């Protein structure tokens, strides 16, 4: 195997024996084969769209297939193998769709991925097929390959957001059209480096569309988030812990547990759910338990109830909670019970069999500072800036992870002067969201914007401030200090670059899939820089 799509790639170069995430070589090979096959579908899907033909089932399959290969989603070899076999049928349908729209077979050369190759009969043989289609390809120029990988990982990232939006009934055809076009482009040997740079920038645009779509899905369905205190302690009663990102799944579980004496707790990226009026109305949405995804192994052993994952961030479960762990949606782990639909009775029953919590109130922290909430007090924010009470804004957020070096973000936040404001989002906030930062004239110094996809809210806030001060975003007293882990972070970075935002600091390490030449391009054009020493970086920014 060889995988370098996440920040924790072994030795900073790539996982070759087993994934740091826990991914086994057979799953890695099957996911490589699935991406290879999705590119073949995209070849025909793009041609069909050029003739005005499209198919909703094919489009949906592309998004689910891509999301399946995101880090910490599907660790079950047999389930990924099912996707591979389905992909071959989808490729046949996409080809037939094009030929019907075209009125004749395709006259040009067909790439191998889009040809009539057949999946092997057994999963073991499929694994061997997948080993022939890994991410390493010495026949492609290293810099071109680097940008191709950035593009593919960006597409994987927005596929996750598109999936959440779709579950709530929201979709945008521009997402599907670009997915086909961009993946098909990776099969085109005539395209050069700048062609793929252009596609990567366009990927950033599409991710912005996707995040905006998901924001609309969330706010139309549950209302705009409002500042809300979240209890970090526990309430007496049976308990279910929900980890992941999907709000619809949480809502359905809340409905099915209402009046049953079962309290629901959020974990990781689910904590922003407490700020939505349509979810916080449930009295048994009791609080948040634990922190970011990488601490689950230790924390879940202490949770006396059922646990369910609804999207990525799962890691190898300990034996003493594996029997009370469930998965839902695209996330799966071998030998862990998977809930295939919207009936959570098994999860509820398991929770009722377990001891649950005693009353043990704890600290409260504030969430719910989406763009609607922040812009609702924009006049106070602008006045505070003009009066010199707020000197600078820092967006400190992104993915958390287990790799060393992430204490930088805690140190950075702790050492910021008291006349600065911190915007934060995604699970990176768990590095400092329990600290007391105080306020500036009633404006909290720490504003939790939400999930990783809520980078859209941060962008909206930045654009509104730029408009108010009649300047560009890069001229604002605003600095972006980002942590990354997986492919959704790549998609968000591409969105920031698409918007022309510069001077971003990123860490704790730079992606292994970025070559020195590509890195130099990012430095020269966007002044991207790796994080350094927290106090030195603060001094350099504030002067």
List how many beta strands DSSP finds.
16
Distance from N terminus to C terminus (CA atoms, Å) equals 46 Å
**Portion in beta strands:** 5-15%
Largest pleated sheet: 6 strands, parallel
pLDDT below 50 for ≥5 consecutive residues: which ranges? none
Give the overall form: globular
Percentage of residues in helical conformation? 40-55%
Number of helices: 19
Strand arrangement in the largest pleated sheet: 4-3-2-5-6-7
Indicate the radius of gyration in whole angstroms. Answer: 23 Å
Mean pLDDT: 97
Structural class: alpha/beta
Structure description:
The chain has 543 residues and is an alpha/beta fold. It has helices at 25-50, 56-68, 77-102, 123-130, 142-167, 173-185, 193-222, 247-257, 277-280, 296-299, 319-322, 345-353, 371-375, 378-386, 407-414, 455-468, 487-498, 516-526, 534-542, and strands spanning 228-231, 238-243, 262-267, 285-288, 306-309, 325-328, 337-339, 364-367, 392-398, 420-425, 439-440, 443-444, 446-450, 478-483, 505-507, 529-530. It has a 6-stranded parallel beta sheet with strand order 4-3-2-5-6-7. Strands 13-10-9-14-15-16 form a 6-stranded parallel beta sheet. Helix 17 links the parallel strand 14 (478-483) and strand 15. The longest helix is centred in the middle third of the chain and has 30 residues, at 193-222.
